[in-house]
Design goal:
five-stranded antiparallel beta sheet; 23 strands; 22% strand; 11 helices; globular; ATP-binding; transferase
Length: 526
């Protein structure tokens, strides 16, 4: 081998060794980068896994919340459907009760005391828009004999009429000037235009068609002043007006203790006679305050005779007559005509959770002022679900709820922040008691609605219902209270008219908007 070949081979070997060393270095460098890349990839994956775990936990929490919301919504829909069904049953029950209360055809009498032969004749008497009705009562008012006798069987009716004279009849007229107007002529539709012809809350006038003969006198107990005035009034009505007097058993005993002269005074013996009082009493006189008027209204579960309330109490929102001039007032009222205020009442039913259906209720309770649902002695908030017809109203969380008539707007409802409303405004007041909310304002609902207040099953405590401040009833979970406007108002006599008497009562009783007048010698506009 020559020297040249040796050099070439050496060079080749060197080159091979350099390439081998360079390849080794490249491989080592490549492995290092791969290790580093794998390390970083593992760290990122681990971090991503942690975030995915947290994210999945959050999604799981959201899913649970959405599931609860969906379940609650489905439950609310089912409950609303159930309440709608129950309200339909309630309406059916009311219609059935009204139908059952219609007496047999033998018990119908027209305004002249003549017995009608069939139901069609009586229906014509009840409809003021009917021509036959116009012959009886005219087009200007309502006849007192449109009110049928409630709760009487045929035998009871015949027995009463066999031993008693007929009640004094009267007619109601709408209109301040006494001319009156047909009560149904409210809206006209001439040429497609809706026009209001007369307001339903116009002043109502009562005109006697026959002289009143029987007067019921109710008095406030434990008052010497009232006892003396009662004895004096009874003596005057008997001697001067030849009026038959009926009083409570307690009052009759007090009168007989004073003198045997009062032997002619009548009274009742049991609850059955009380239930028939409206069939023979022409006029009710109350001596006391608003509480005595409430007591008088509670005695009549159906129609109520006209009430003349004399003021011998504290405030007297419903007692416009002063006792000092009782002779002049009673003389004018017995002659007539007089202005009256029709004070609407609420009819309340308690439906227990164990009831088989909506028709299984307790005895109805009539209230003139308000029904109150409160928490009683419980330290927990009252939890009440409220419905108006088939619509959900709200859930009351606070001390309670007041459902009031407009006559009761100046009582408990006023103290709880409700508005003062004229008693002839047709409406139902919905007033919360100390609600745990800044946005819960009182409502005034139309008179034709039916309100339902129920204690939910998740309530922490029971609720208590009171009716005109008495007859408290406990409402457990699942129990409900149903309130609607009763068909029998309480007609109270006015001293002037309903508006004048109402404004005078809030001025004198509450000193409404009483303020020291601004001085006239202050700064003036130039």
């Amino acid at each position: 081998m020559s020297h040249q070949e040796f050099d070439s081979e050496g060079t080749l070997n060197n080159t091979r060794s350099q390439l081998a060393s360079g390849l080794t270095e490249s491989l080592s460098t490549f492995d290092s980068e791969k290790v580093v890349q794998e390390y970083f990839q593992q760290s990122v994956v681990k971090g991503v896994d942690d975030h995915l775990v947290e994210f999945s936990e959050a999604l799981r929490t959201v899913a649970k919340a959405l599931r609860r919301v969906a379940e609650g919504k489905a439950s609310a829909k089912a409950e609303a459907a159930e309440w709608k069904r129950k309200y339909e049953l309630e309406r059916t029950r009311n219609l059935q009760q009204e139908h059952k209360k219609l007496p047999s055809p033998e018990g119908y009498y027209d305004c002249r005391g003549k017995k009608t032969e069939n139901l069609t004749d009586q229906c014509s008497l009840e409809s003021l828009a009917n021509d036959k009705s116009e012959k009886c009562c005219g087009r200007d008012g309502i006849c007192s004999h449109e009110v049928l006798r409630d709760g009487e069987t045929d035998s009871d009716s015949k027995m009463i009429h066999s031993r008693m004279r007929r009640k004094a009849s009267f007619r109601l007229s709408w209109g301040c000037n006494g001319s009156g107007q047909h009560k149904h002529d409210i809206v006209s539709f001439e040429r497609g235009n809706i026009t209001t012809a007369v307001r339903s809350s116009k002043q109502i006038s009562l005109r006697w068609e026959s002289q009143p003969q029987v007067v019921l006198i109710l008095t406030k107990p434990n008052s010497t002043t009232v006892r003396i005035l009662c004895a004096e009034m009874v003596r005057w009505l008997k001697d001067q007006k030849k009026i038959n007097i009926i009083v409570e058993p307690r009052v009759r005993s007090e009168l007989l203790t004073e003198s045997s002269y009062f032997n002619f005074v009548q009274t009742w013996e049991d609850d059955k006679e009380i239930s028939l009082l409206h069939t023979k009493i022409d006029l009710v006189v109350t001596l006391g305050g608003d509480g005595t008027v409430l007591w008088a209204a509670s005695m009549f579960k159906g129609p109520v005779p006209p009430v003349v309330p004399f003021s011998l109490g504290s405030l007297g929102f419903m007692t416009p007559f002063h006792s000092e001039n009782y002779r002049e007032y009673l003389d004018a009222i017995l002659r007539g005509p007089i202005s009256i205020t029709l004070r609407h009442r609420l009819q309340c039913f308690v439906i227990r959770d164990g009831a088989k259906d909506e028709l299984e209720t307790e005895e109805p309770i009539l209230v003139l002022n308000e029904v109150t649902i409160d928490r009683g002695i419980s330290s927990y908030l009252t939890n009440l679900e409220c419905y108006c017809d088939s619509s959900f109203v709200t859930c009351v969380q606070g001390d309670g709820l007041i459902i009031s008539t407009t006559s009761g707007s100046t009582a408990y409802s006023l103290a709880a922040g409700g508005s003062m409303v004229h008693p002839q405004v047709p409406g139902i007041l919905f007033t919360p008691i100390c609600p745990h909310s800044l946005s819960f304002r009182p409502l005034i609902l139309p008179e034709h609605v039916t309100l339902r207040v129920q204690v939910p099953f998740n309530s922490r405590g029971h609720a208590w219902a009171s009716f005109d401040g008495k007859d408290r009833k406990q409402l457990a979970a699942g129990d409900a209270l149903v309130c609607s406007m009763a068909p029998w108002p309480v007609p109270t006599a006015c001293q002037v008219d309903s508006t004048t008497d109402f404004l005078r009562s809030i001025h004198e009783g509450l000193h409404w908007n009483l303020r020291k007048p601004q001085l006239f010698d202050g700064p003036r506009e130039s």
